[in-house]
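Tokens for chain A. Residues wanted.
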């Protein structure tokens, strides 16, 4: 295993951690807004927000996992 793989993995790990943290914060903020939408009486907008937030969260999670798998494959090969 080369030092270059470790360096790339380190930087990529920082980027992935940043994306994950931003996604969690955004999802939390969206869910707070959903609570307000339900209390005001706008369930359709609330459900659309839940669907969009969930899709985005799963998309970014899959992106982060695929990047991590790429690091492992590069390190082994």
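Reply:
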């Amino acid at each position: 295993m080369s030092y270059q793989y470790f360096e790339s993995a380190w930087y990529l790990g920082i980027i992935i951690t940043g994306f994950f943290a931003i996604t969690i914060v955004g999802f939390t903020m969206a869910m707070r807004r959903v609570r307000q939408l339900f209390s005001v009486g706008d369930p359709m907008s609330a459900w659309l927000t839940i669907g969009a937030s969930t899709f985005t969260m799963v998309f970014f999670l899959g992106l982060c996992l695929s990047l991590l798998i790429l690091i492992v494959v590069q390190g082994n090969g």
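The chain is about 95% helix and 0% strand. The first helix runs from residue 3 to 40.
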